[in-house]
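User: Show me a protein chain along with its predicted structure.
Assistant: Here is one chain, sequence first, then structure tokens.
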Amino acid sequence: MVNHEKNKYKQEILINQIEGFVEYLNVEKNYALNTISSYKRDLLKFVSFLNNRGITNWVSIDSDAINIFVMELRHRSISAKSLKRYLSSIRVFFNYLIENNIIQKNPALSVQTPKVERVLPKTIDFDDLRRMMSINTSSYKELRSVLVIELLYSCGLRVSELVGINLADFDLSEGFVKVMGKGGKARFSPIGEATIDVLKRYLEMRPNCSSDALFINQKNIRISTRTVQNVVKNRALQVGVSINVHPHMLRHAAATHFLQSSHDLRTVQEFLGHKSIKSTQIYTHLDFLELSKVYDEFHPRAKK
């Protein structure tokens, strides 16, 4: 019983150090809440694994222990992409422990990262998009749904970026909206006349409350990312779009259409708020696929 209580106490120390790391990511690094939640979730699962193996401190962990953790996850059919994320969380956390003189070296650095097959993001046909953005009843609920889709698509936003928009972030005279991207980095995204028109109509019907958020729920507080996902999905069903539409699909569509019209990868990078050009380069593959479709359909030398 004494050993059980002692191990429980040591595990609480590990969890407290993870909480300190989470606070560090929030305050010092200004990471997005979704990113912080992923780190915390991954690390708590790692601590649970360590506890089952009787490992009660970070110093005792070596690359073999991490490899076994990864192997157990793989046996549970966890995807290579998720395994890569788990390893990234552990590596970053151990670097934090080194900086705070808790451990001397990072054992996760010698663990091989699983190879992830590049999957091209799904996009949506522009005719389906147009149906989702058409206004029929001018009700508050419909205006809110259409504005959500207008902003996600016209500004190429992440869901977290959309949720974070405040009323004061708009400059309608210049046609811009301020967006807070990953790492608390702000960018200014242009918005077109069609989006501004929907925005003005929405603001006229938006409940008058103390919240600064652009989008609010029935309790007059900022909506959640899950609400945005439901809004997009339900709107697609409402107008008869046959595919399962999710918010990130609209961001992919915006990037693809922007690249097809501008042929400027750097501009698309700025538009999306990508830190690295490598994140944007996947859309060159999408552009090629679209080009292939057009070639196959219309070019006289294409194989029919």
